[in-house]
Amino acid sequence: MSADPGKRHGALGRKLCTEFLNSCNLSITGFKDALEAIEYHDDKDYLSHPEDNYVLDILSVADDIDAFGTIGIYRYSEIYLKRRISIRDIGWMIIKNAESRFENLEKRIKLSPEFKMKHRNRYNYLLDFFREYNAQLNSYDFCTPSPTGYCGIIQILANYDIREFSNIPDKYSKDPFITDFFINLSSENEFI
Fold it and tell me: How far apart are CA 15 and CA 34, in angstroms?
């Protein structure tokens, strides 16, 4: 993802993994399912997935649930900002993508109801965040030296080094909403 932030970064991941396996003198034949999983894990249309690949199923579910909650807000924002998607468009685009991911998760009948409920709550948190973000857009100045609210979080993610912010959450904003968001991000990231 860091080398290719595009929608189809899995193909590059497969190529890099194949090169790694070759450098270790390992036959890629024994890693067919893993290589397919790497390549197709981020295909959120779910149409071109190879059949009966349980490694891909597991990786796709892991990738989907990583898109929800506080960490999902951060990851989506980071990815869409790297893709140079307009700060005015990312909220709607993230909601649309998250809906597709959650629908896929809901269709997986083998997941326990408790697991689904936990991630439904994380999904709803992400949706609520970006709905509020979209509502705040027209009245927010992304050049303000004092970021606030939902748009302020995205402003910080777009303009500052997140690692530095995590260590000094009140350096860039005195807004307790923003400070709490980054404290939650830090603790959720450690949990995951």
Answer: 12
Task: State in Å, rounded, how far the first CA of the chain is from the last one.
Answer: 18
More confident residue, 145 or 24: 145
User: Is this prediction's pTM over 0.70?
Assistant: yes
Q: Which residue has the higher pLDDT, 190 or 141?
A: 141
Q: How far apart are CA 179 and CA 171, in angstroms?
A: 9
Cα angle value 109/113/115 (rounded, 5°): 100
Domain boundaries, the chain: 1-59, 66-191
Angle (CA) 124-77-39 rounded to 5° is 95
| Chain centroid to CA 71 | 7
